[in-house]
């Protein structure tokens, strides 16, 4: 089912995110992660894509398996090192396997990888146009409530986000954030610029201090003092950090939905157990108790 249709049908949508196994690793475990996540009945499940495109078959494999479980899949697709022929091949493979929702991303070239001479995409906006011209796909894009690290300022970032919306994005998913006020200010700025594409708020349940320090360092996401104290207090005790991370994400989601946010995307990072605990805390709120 197209995510754009789900958005029309349901008052609140809740999705989860998985990443594909590295080439040569345990595919059975990846299947199991899909099955356990799909059993939670999120509205859709997304699967990330390696920016170099080298492991693309595992993204497709997982997305296909999600659809086989009766759940809507969203396959990520990056274009940074690709040419349009490769992208069209990927799109044909996706369609042939029943995957028709795509998160169109530029991606970042992996360290040490040179941009191939025939690479022909500069920005995600170019990819959105190619996908839209290739057939009936539902296309999402990424957005950054705290600004993309490469942008000079938020004004510039929003200018290009508007262009990405106009290229045909059906929805946006945000980078993670830990302070809901950051998202509310961002949504207000979209509204003021007539960027009226539905937005999924990206929530990361933090269960590991080292991992979050690395991700936050790369993405420029800020850590509010309340969250920083949780990391300081519980970050070296994994069981306590997990409990606190689940509670923090749950509270963030309740506040978002109470304030009218209609889409929440959980960066569940192949941890269906964590997604289950968060969704269990929200079963009435998400209407999953029925
Ligand atoms: P773009 O939209 O192209 O933006 C990148 C930068 O270029 C921004 O600073 C923007 O303001 C600027 N820009 C945009 N258009 C123009 C223009 N026309 N002219 C000049 N400047 C412009 N990475 C992966 O490798 N695989 C994944 O699966 C993946 N999933 C992600 C999912 C989400 C929800 C998010 C938020 C990020 C994800 N990423 C993923 C990371 C993403 O690829 C990086 O953040 C990357 O640096 C930017 O990708 P983008 O699609 O936002 O790029």
Written overview of the protein:
It is a single chain. With about 290 residues, the chain is an alpha/beta fold. Helices cover about 45% and strands about 15% of the residues. The chain has helices spanning about 5-10, 25-40, 55-70, 85-95, 125-135, 155-165, 180-190, 210-220, 225-235, 240-260, 270-280, and strands at about 15-20, 45, 70-80, 100-105, 140-145, 170-175, 200-205, 265. Helix 2 (about 25-40) runs parallel beside helix 11 (about 270-280) and helix 9 (about 225-235) packs antiparallel against helix 10. The protein is globular and about 50 Å long. About 45% of the residues are buried. It binds flavin-adenine dinucleotide.
Number of strands: 8
Cα-based radius of gyration, to the nearest Å: 18 Å
Oligomer classification: single chain
Mean pLDDT: 95
Topology (SSEs and partners):
Layout (H helix, E strand, L loop, with lengths): L2 H7 L3 E6 L8 H12 L5 E4 L8 H13 L3 E7 L5 H13 L4 E5 L18 H11 L3 E6 L10 H14 L3 E4 L5 H13 L6 E5 L5 H11 L5 H10 L3 H21 L4 E4 L5 H10 L9
Bound molecules: flavin-adenine dinucleotide.
Task: Tell me briefly what this model is.
47% of the residues lie in helices and 14% in strands.
Descriptive keywords:
single chain; 290 residues; globular; alpha/beta; eight-stranded parallel β-barrel; binds flavin-adenine dinucleotide
């Amino acid at each position: 089912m197209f995510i754009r249709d789900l958005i029309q049908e349901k008052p609140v949508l809740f999705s989860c995110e998985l990443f594909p196994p590295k080439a040569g690793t345990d595919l059975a475990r990846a299947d199991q992660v899909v099955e356990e996540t799909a059993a939670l009945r999120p509205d859709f499940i997304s699967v990330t894509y390696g920016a170099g495109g080298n492991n693309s078959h595992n993204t497709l494999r997982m997305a296909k398996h999600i659809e086989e479980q009766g759940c809507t899949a969203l396959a990520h697709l990056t274009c940074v090192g690709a040419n349009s022929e490769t992208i069209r091949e990927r799109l044909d493979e996706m369609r042939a396997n029943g995957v028709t929702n795509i998160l169109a991303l530029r991606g970042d070239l992996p360290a040490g990888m040179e941009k191939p001479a025939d690479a022909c995409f500069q920005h995600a906006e170019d990819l959105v146009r190619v996908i839209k011209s290739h057939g009936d796909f539902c296309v999402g894009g990424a957005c950054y409530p705290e600004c993309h690290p490469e942008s000079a300022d938020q004004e510039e970032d929003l200018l290009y986000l508007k262009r990405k919306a106009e290229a045909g994005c059906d929805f946006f998913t945000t980078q993670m954030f830990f302070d809901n006020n950051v998202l509310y200010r961002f949504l207000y700025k979209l509204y003021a610029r007539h960027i009226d594409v539905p937005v999924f708020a990206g929530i990361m349940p933090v269960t590991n201090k080292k991992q979050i320090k690395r991700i936050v360092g790369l993405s420029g996401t800020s850590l509010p003092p309340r969250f920083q104290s949780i990391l300081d207090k519980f970050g070296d005790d994994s069981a306590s950090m997990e409990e606190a991370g689940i509670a923090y994400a749950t509270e963030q989601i309740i506040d978002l939905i109470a304030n009218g946010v209609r889409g929440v995307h959980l960066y569940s990072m192949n941890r269906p157990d964590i997604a289950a605990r968060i969704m269990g805390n929200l079963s009435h709120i998400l209407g999953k108790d029925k």
